[in-house]
Specification:
This protein is an alpha/beta fold. It has helices at 7-13, 28-38, 51-66, 169-185, 197-202, 205-210, 241-248, 255-264, 332-351, 373-380, 417-427, 448-452, 474-484, 499-518, 530-535, and strands spanning 70-71, 79-89, 95-100, 103-107, 113-115, 123-132, 138-139, 144-145, 156-160, 190-194, 216-219, 235-239, 270-296, 307-313, 318-323, 326-329, 359-365, 389-394, 404-410, 431-433, 458-467. The chain has two domains: 7-83 and 286-538, Aminopeptidase (3-Layer(aba) Sandwich); 87-284, 3-Layer(bba) Sandwich (Glucose Oxidase, domain 1), CATH 3.50.30. It is 30% helix and 25% strand. It has a 17-stranded mixed beta sheet that branches. Strands 7-8 form a two-stranded antiparallel sheet. The longest helix is centred in the middle third of the chain and has 20 residues, at 332-351. The chain starts with 6 loop residues before the first helix and ends in a 9-residue tail after the last helix.
Length: 544
């Protein structure tokens, strides 16, 4: 991985790592059959809470039952209910006005800005001074503080996407995702988000506009209130770069200077000589969706009460704005393919000669596309004792668009699971590749992060940036998919999906699961690991 494992530290706390018996051969045809069903137009994109998702959930539960798994959801069934609140922004009704020196600048929705979401009412508004807070990151352990010398209380904070590039990748990933919490805690009343030029290249503005129809969701607590919706932040917008320059006019630095300081990794925060008035409108509804939970019981009387959790998200975006006349966002790679890989790994483990000593849960989660909500609910309120969960192995959007000869194990540098992954890949003759794009902060962007936040070591193995075909440029293929097909109706089975690579990924994950399940020692965070020290304290782990 990008940050090599420290050999001495790994050996000090690593499990015994005996190579597990070979799983059975994986079937590309079985993987393909799962994907073709789950990504069929009849399921209408499997949106969270939709009938199409319910059909997909029934399909997955039926496949688990056919493999001899046992139901491990609520009340002895296959399903775990997840209560959700949904907000759909009414983009044309949004208003944003910047006022500076008596001059008012009206910004146009879907041209200059995209409104954020409201979860506490169908209308949200705020009017307050603007303050720029760089990346919105305070990381004392790294000597970095964008809030130094500025007070955001009662103001609308202007924030750059991501986190400083010079941060270690773990901290960069963590702080990229946690900044909203920091803003709310410091008293901000609104947020204006800007892409950095680098992020604009990855996720162009016109793409964000095209996807502005997609709703957002939050979990609902026992009092019926949305979780982590931050009512202190009364309204938010995303602003395009051309319009952002107007916000910085007359300020201490121009937008170009701000970007230069951000690229150089210099903390920056300063008041802007302007106020902003925001009014947002939204349709709000409540829905219940489900996780699908099956378990392969462990064979060892002492270890069967502990669990390795395999995850793959079953949801996608559903039906939405037409692109080239197509309104169904099928989600073949994202994430019918990950669900298919998980089901094939379950088959290999259920039918192999060596049964796992620990139990293995296979969890098809909902609402990943709405903020990792299904996995978050299970990680916080699992259907088995939380302290009995030893690890999470996630499968999400394997980019198998050509013959693969290398996979990336996201999270390998954080725990002893990295060595488990290395040995599993080595046994399959597959190269363990480094993170092809650390700036994407992939480790916090899928369901494994929900388990990490509960202190549970996690791993996410993805098809890596290497092909056995020398004529293929993997980076070019990935970039084309992300720009043209990711979260678009064209993510469907007509893509050149390489089914044998997905089958290989299923076998790798089966090896990983079997090695974890059969080892006497639990996986452990490596000494000094950022995520282990940040979240591992939440976890009460029994002694070996």
């Amino acid at each position: 991985m990008r940050h090599p494992l420290i050999v001495a530290a790994a050996l000090a706390c690593a499990p015994s790592l005996a190579v597990a018996a070979d799983p059975p051969a994986a079937s590309p045809d079985a993987v393909r059959a799962h994907v073709e069903f789950l990504a069929d137009d009849l399921l209408e994109g499997r949106a969270t809470g939709s009938r199409g998702f319910q059909v997909a959930a029934r399909y997955v539960a039926t496949q688990m039952a056919a493999l001899g798994l046992r139901p491990a959801g609520a009340d002895g069934g296959w399903l775990q209910p997840v209560q959700l609140i949904e907000s759909t922004r009414v983009v044309p009704a949004a208003r944003a006005t910047v006022e500076r020196g008596g001059v008012r600048i009206e910004l146009a929705p879907a041209v200059d800005f995209i409104p954020g979401f409201s979860f506490f009412g169908t209308e949200a508004s705020v009017s307050a001074p603007l303050v720029f807070v760089g990346f919105g990151v305070s990381a004392p352990e790294l000597g970095y503080d964008d809030y130094a010398g500025v007070d955001v209380a009662g103001k609308v904070a202007v924030v750059l996407s991501g986190a400083p590039a010079h941060f270690p990748n773990s901290q960069r990933a963590h702080y990229s995702r946690e900044k909203t919490r920091q803003l709310a805690a410091r008293g901000a009343v609104g947020v204006v988000s800007l892409n950095t030029p680098a992020d604009e290249q990855r996720w162009p503005w016109d793409r964000a506009v095209r996807l502005s129809w997609v709703p957002s969701m939050r979990l609902v607590d026992s009092a019926g209130q949305p979780v982590e919706a931050y009512p202190e932040l009364k309204a938010s917008i995303s602003l395009n770069l051309a319009s952002a320059a107007k916000v910085f006019d007359g300020g201490p630095r121009t937008l170009e200077q701000v970007f230069a300081d951000a690229e150089a990794g210099r903390p920056q925060g300063f008041d802007l000589p302007a106020t902003i008035a925001l009014t947002l409108r939204a349709a709000i509804g409540r829905t219940q969706c489900t996780n699908v939970v099956g378990v392969l019981p462990g064979s060892d009387p002492k270890l069967a009460g502990e669990y390795v959790v395999f995850t793959a998200h079953l949801d996608h975006l559903g039906k939405g704005a037409a692109v080239n006349g197509d309104t169904i966002y099928n989600g073949a790679l994202d994430n019918a393919s990950g669900t298919a890989v998980m089901l094939e790994a379950a088959r290999l483990l259920a039918t192999g000669k060596t049964r796992p000593k620990r139990s293995i849960i296979f969890l098809a989660v909902t609402a990943e596309e709405r903020g990792l909500l299904g996995s978050k609910h299970f990680a916080m309120f699992p259907t088995v004792p939380k302290d009995a969960i030893v690890a999470n192995v996630n499968m999400d959007m394997p980019m198998a668009l050509f013959p693969m000869s290398g996979f990336t194990a996201y999270g390998a540098e954080h725990s002893t699971l990295g060595e488990v992954a290395r040995r599993a890949l080595e046994a399959e003759g597959i190269e363990m590749m480094p993170d092809p794009d650390p700036a994407e902060v992939t480790f916090v962007r899928s369901d494994q992060y929900s388990f990490v936040r509960e202190g549970i070591p996690a791993l996410y193995v993805d098809a890596g940036a290497k092909s056995s075909d020398p004529a293929v440029d993997p980076d070019a293929v990935f970039r084309e998919f992300l720009i043209r097909d990711y979260h678009m109706p064209s993510d469907e089975t007509e893509l050149p999906i390489h089914w044998p690579s997905l089958a290989s990924l299923a076998r790798v994950n089966a090896r990983i699961g079997l090695a974890i399940a059969n080892d006497r020692k639990r996986p452990a965070w490596l000494p000094g690991d950022f995520f282990g020290e940040t979240f591992g304290v939440k976890r009460a782990v029994p002694a070996d």
